[in-house]
Specification:
globular; 6-stranded parallel beta sheet; binds adenosine-5'-diphosphate; Rossmann fold; binds alpha-D-glucopyranose; 497 residues; 19 strands
Length: 497
């Protein structure tokens, strides 16, 4: 199939979270299976021109009542030549250090325009290449206007047989803007309203995609069920329920070339299930790297995370938060790597300043993330909600036992440990609050000290799990095919999502 991915993040080119991993891995797997898959994204300042090929013709993108002129720079995603990435250069909007914002300005005030341009440019790139895809697959609010354009300004064009496919990676980020921002989109007000973007408070990009895309999916079956409820629906649960075809969950895989303890270039030593004893050395490397006392007896609990409320930091932080109590009352070392909201960064720094058994690194660092996955005994993810989550799957592969919230993709990918039968791959936190986190970590650490063999069995069970992209990709292909068939049979106007 011919598939265009439109995205704000991908792989190591531009990454703030799991969206980048997911889009890169899905793209690579599609390409490896012979599909003609290409990618459109912005050329942010940190994506260097020098390594890319510039298209000769400039790209005119109609916005508002005029056109915005862009350059297209082409590159390849990783080693597979067929996954071409077209980056859109438009310095007024993209020549910045961050994807959505910077440390001083967490959310650029012109993000509505920045990502509307990306969405419209996707169509123009295809036109310029004379390459009309079977599917345009877009992801999260930054590309949510793609299906909206398909139903409005791009209706009855050469894209009429192209299915629009939208994946929700996180319903908590919706792209809410003021109504005035819509002037730049060029979409007549009644059409914008019909496409679902207009809400009482202004604009909501994600709502537009949910109401306009030919198919909507999310990144686990658990989360697909949760977002139909007010508790997890972030105000859009009724729109999700209203889709006649439902919102299907397709769980993410992980990239086992990148996350493999037997070949990982970032860790020393490497190990696998047949050399699990070497994981103890990887733990020593971790303790050395993070300035923790080198001590094999003490359990190490790791966290690698965006520092956002979603990830459970309300229950973790503060004087009565779980981390304080875990650090002081349970014999553990805690190692945390993350960047994000300032109050969380400050709280974690305070936590570590006063304690020898806590090491906190504020920053985004791929290498350190691998060292933590390899060396820790447990990986803590008490997310308030988790659409899929990747770190728990990385942890399983590295024999690091996940301690997770019982929700979303975490529930779908981790199996509850039963100490009586020594089965399962991780621990579920219950209840999901500060006490519950504390108790679950305490139980896990206790099991490790009274029954190291049971812990090894649990580690090995986790290491044997495989969440392959091949399987997830096949589910995407099946969904693409059904959607393309529906669009071709009924026409886009004939499908009311
Ligand atoms: P989310 O996308 O909600 O942040 P995921 O678990 O899906 O959560 O993916 C997070 C990804 O980002 C993982 O690959 C994780 O290792 C990575 N990551 C998050 N924070 C950091 C950090 N500070 N340094 C390095 N990698 C990080
Ligand atoms: C989002 C979600 C995360 C998911 C990732 C990739 O950022 O928060 O749970 O794993 O997207 O789909």
């Amino acid at each position: 199939m011919k598939i265009l991915m439109v995205t704000s993040e991908i792989g190591t080119i531009a990454k703030t979270g799991g969206l980048a991993d997911m889009v890169a891995a899905l793209t690579r797997t599609l390409a490896a299976n012979g599909h003609d898959v290409r990618v459109v994204m912005p050329r942010y300042r940190f994506i260097r021109r020098e390594t890319m090929v510039r298209h000769e013709a400039p790209l005119g993108v109609p916005m508002g009542t005029s056109e915005r002129w862009c350059a297209v720079y082409e590159t390849e995603l990783g080693a597979i030549p067929r996954a071409t990435v077209y980056t859109i250069e438009h310095d007024a909007l993209y020549d910045r250090d961050g994807v959505y914002g910077t440390r001083s300005v967490p959310f650029f005030e012109d993000n509505a325009l920045r990502f509307a341009l990306l969405s419209r440019a996707a169509f123009q790139v295809c036109r310029a290449l004379h390459w009309i895809p079977d599917v345009i697959h877009c992801h999260d609010w930054p590309t949510a206007l793609v299906p909206v354009y398909a139903r409005t300004l791009e209706n009855r064009t050469e894209f009429d047989s192209t299915a629009t496919f939208f994946t929700i990676h996180n319903l908590g980020y919706q792209g809410r803007f003021s109504a005035a921002d819509a002037v730049e989109f060029g979409i007549p007000a009644p059409e914008l309203e019909k496409a679902g973007v207009v809400v009482s408070t202004g604009l909501n990009f994600l709502r537009g995609a949910i109401k306009s895309a030919d198919c909507v999916t999310t990144v686990s079956e658990g989360y697909a069920a949760e977002i139909t409820t007010p508790e997890f629906g972030f105000g859009l649960d009724s729109e999700i329920r209203a889709r006649g075809d439902g919102v299907r969950g397709i769980v993410n895989g992980i990239d086992y070339d990148e996350w493999n303890p037997s070949t990982d270039p970032y860790i020393t030593p490497r190990f696998d299930s047949d050399s699990l004893e070497r994981k103890a050395e990887a733990k020593r490397s971790l303790q050395t790297e993070f300035n923790l006392p080198v001590d094999s007896a003490t359990a190490v609990v790791g966290i690698v995370s965006r520092l956002a409320e979603q990830k459970g930091f309300t229950a973790l932080c503060g004087p009565t938060g779980a981390l304080n109590r875990i650090a002081d009352e349970i014999p553990v070392q805690i190692v945390i790597l993350g960047t994000g909201e300032e109050w969380i960064e400050r709280d974690l720094e305070q936590l570590s300043a006063a304690r020898a058994n806590v090491s906190v690194t504020i920053g985004f660092d791929e290498r350190l993330a691998h060292i933590i996955e390899a060396g820790a005994d447990f990986f803590l993810m008490p997310s308030e909600y988790e659409p899929c989550g990747l770190n728990q799957m990385y942890s399983l592969r590295y024999g690091t036992i996940p301690i997770v919230a019982p929700n979303g993709g975490l529930k779908d990918t981790v199996k509850q440990v039963d100490p009586a039968t020594t089965t399962g791959t991780g621990f579920f936190i219950a209840p999901l609050d500060s006490d519950g986190i504390f108790d679950t970590v305490r139980r896990a650490v206790e099991l490790r000290s009274v029954s190291p063999d049971a812990i090894d069995t649990i580690r090995l069970a986790g290491m044997a799990e495989r969440f392959t992209w091949q399987r997830s990709m096949e589910n995407y292909i099946a969904a693409y095919e059904t959607t393309v068939a529906r669009v071709r049979a009924a026409g886009r106007d004939g499908i009311s999502p």
